[in-house]
Amino acid sequence: MKSITYDELKSGLAKELIKKKSSFSILGLSGKMSNAVELIEDQIENEGYSCRIYTYGRIAAAGGTLFGGITGLLGAASAIGMAAHNLATINPDFEVAKHLVDNKLVVTYEK
Question: Which residue segment(s) compose the domain that 103 sits in?
Answer without folding.
Answer: 2-109
